[in-house]
Amino acid sequence: MIKKILTIIISLVAIGFILTTYTLYGYNYLLQSSLYVNILTSSIFFLPGLIAVTVLNGKFFGTKYLLGFLLYPTAYLFSILLFSEFGILPEKFYATFGVLITIVTPLLVGIASFKKGKTGKEITENIILFLFALGIVSGFNQLIGLQKDSLLSLDFLQHNAVVMEMKEGHTCFTPNQCSNLFQKLGYTSVFHSIQAILTMSIHLPLGEIFVTLSQIFTAFSFTIIYRYITKLGIPWYLNILASLIAISIFDLGAHSFTYFLPQTMALMLFVIALQSEKWRISTTLFTISVLILSHFVIGSYLSFLLISYILFFSPKMTTKVPLTITALLTLALVVFITANIRGFSIEKIFQANEIDALGFLSNYYYPDNLMVVVKQYGVILFTTLIGIIYTFFTKRRNNFILYNIFIFQTGLSIYFLAPTYANKFFLGFGVFMAVITLNILNTLFQRSIYSKILFLEMIFISTVPLYMINAQKYFTFYTQGNGKISAIVEEDNGLVNFLKSNNRYKCMIISDPYTQLMVRSQTEYDTLGAQYQSLKDRATISQFTTLPSEVNFKEISSLTTEDICFVYSSRLSLVSKYANPDNAPWRNILYDYEINNNRGLEQKETVKRTMQGMGYKIIYQDSNYILFSPGFLL
Asked: Which member of 170, 232, 404, 467 lies 3.0 to 4.6 Å from 165 by CB, making a disulfide possible if both were Cys?
């Protein structure tokens, strides 16, 4: 009862804050509130589960959560309809939609908390678990020195380029329909329909929105994982430790919870779906559809894992078939590792074009790939391997454990087969490794609670230095010359704000890759691929800024059929400082960029004379940028 009262108080405080702030200070003030963005982001993830419980009469986590989750792409379709029929801008729709979410969610929490049976108890526990994890995550971010606006993901900016088009009422069923940053068709805009709620309706810097979204997604994922691990039937305190290990190990893998990405969203929907108790053909097909719409590659992979669960690993099956499948997969894994050691790789043999486009191999190879796995997972890798061996030689096993072993072995097999970006199939390893490890500890130390807690604490502590090493890689890249840790560079704001308020120039912005990303993610202007600008195009652009001439600029003009607005940036100017400009790292590696933009402009007078001689006018200038526009556009 105390838990229910606490939940009701939290709900009333949230509603009270929104109504009071709106009444006293107005609508715009509310949309600029940090507390409001926290309430809204939390509501986004809780609302589908509450709809599942109160409207669809199902479990909070399960396939009906996925059905409630479709509220967000449905809302996007509705915004398109409102714009096409009544001219209502999506930005206004999403601002209202966001406020409705923050009011409806606490109301449904109150209703769901008093449902009979386990449902009401589970709702209150989920909220308490979420708040506990949110405190841990936000506290840890403070400990490692991240600021409240430390945006640590270029992907977030890339996805916001789609949101900028959605904001104008454009139809983006797939992101490549609205942005040339998405050069391959990887997923639909189901993911973007969520990011749009935040970046369209919240009047805060993107960095603050990103940090809030990252922390809340991590905390909510902790809650999902906790519920998944309860299938082991272990005490709650062991479950909490295992869930903390899972999210910390997850951060060391293919993608971090710091990044709210389509593939991580697909994984969480998969783990949510696995908590369903009944599977029909219609339910299975629906779940597969949602997973694939979320991410075509990872969603298809997760769909294979889901079908495998339903056919071979469900609780109704005897352990004979699941044990046979995992044993055969173990033998296959040994074959794949041996083949990799002897030089086999899908990437090297079949994907030469991908390698040429990237400028590097996307995978590590023997012995580095083995060392990466060991360094990445540390102690828990060995406890997982011991847990797998123990499971094969004991009769104390169940299908749930065998299924987690199956997922672990499948991802590891793909890693050693080595298609491009094979490490993406480590996605969620922390969850499945934690289950395998916890199972063996629970079995070996049945009567010793303290031994279990001690071992789990040791494993968790062992992940901390690995986490710090991994995090430092991100921090090093995103650390600017002034010490700030963020992908958003202050020196870029002048140009970005100018273009935001001057959208009348109908031209494509061309500059260095990082400047283009800053422009594309925050304005309506299109660019030449932004951070995915090809190596050939990078060389063409830097050739002009190194040796400004009309001939070299014509090479840039040939890269597109659109009118060009050229941005001479400090980042481009930096190339001329190399003894050999061809050695500038971002010219030769697709994922290498110059983040700092405070070096000043070399040869700016020469560039000015060249551009003005071709009829270009300067429409914006500061110490690190000169923006040229064709005279006929003015």
From this structure: 170
Number of Cβ atoms within 10 Å of the Cβ of 81: 12
For the chain, list residues with pLDDT below 50: 251-255, 257
Against a cut of 0.90, is the pTM above it? yes
DSSP-assigned beta bridge partners for residue 485? 479
DSSP 581: G
- Return the pLDDT at 257: 47
The token pair that represents 219 in the structure block: 């905390």
- 390 φ/ψ angles, rounded to the nearest 5 degrees: -60, -40
On the CB side of 125, CA atoms within 13 Å amount to: 14
Beta-bridge mates of residue 527: 509
Sort strands 616-622 and 564-569 into parallel, antiparallel or unpaired.
unpaired
pLDDT at 465: 75
Task: Yes or no: say if 600 and 623 are a contact pair by the CB < 8 Å rule.
Answer: yes
Query: What is d(CA 469, CA 251) in angstroms, rounded to the nearest whole number?
Result: 11
Phi, psi at 142, each rounded to 5°: -65, -40
pLDDT of residue 1: 63
Of the candidates 73, 36, 66, the residue with the CA atom closest to the CA atom of residue 51 = 66
Question: What is the length of the chain?
Answer: 634
133-152 pLDDT, tens per residue? 999 989 888 877 778 888 98
Question: Residue 581: its pLDDT value, please?
Answer: 67
The rounded distance, in Å, linking the Cα atoms of 269 and 275 is 10
pLDDT of residue 258: 58
- In this structure, what is the dihedral angle of CA atoms 473, 212, 200, 65, given to the nearest 10 degrees? 100
pLDDT at res. 580: 67
Residue 411 and residue 376 in contact, taking contact as beta carbons nearer than 8 Å: no
Are 216 and 41 spatial neighbours (Cβ–Cβ below 8 Å)?
Answer: yes
Whole-angstrom Cα distance, residue 554 to residue 436? 60
DSSP notation for 94-144:
HHHHHHHHHHHHHHHHHHHHT-TTHHHHHHHHHHHHHHHHHHHHHHHHHHT
CA angle 30/32/34 to nearest 5° reads 95
Give the Cα separation of 432 and 420 in Å (integer): 23
Q: How far apart (Å, rounded) are the C-alpha atoms in residues 87 and 200?
A: 17
User: What one-letter code names the amino acid at 408?
Assistant: F
Task: Report residue 460 as tokens.
Answer: 């968790």
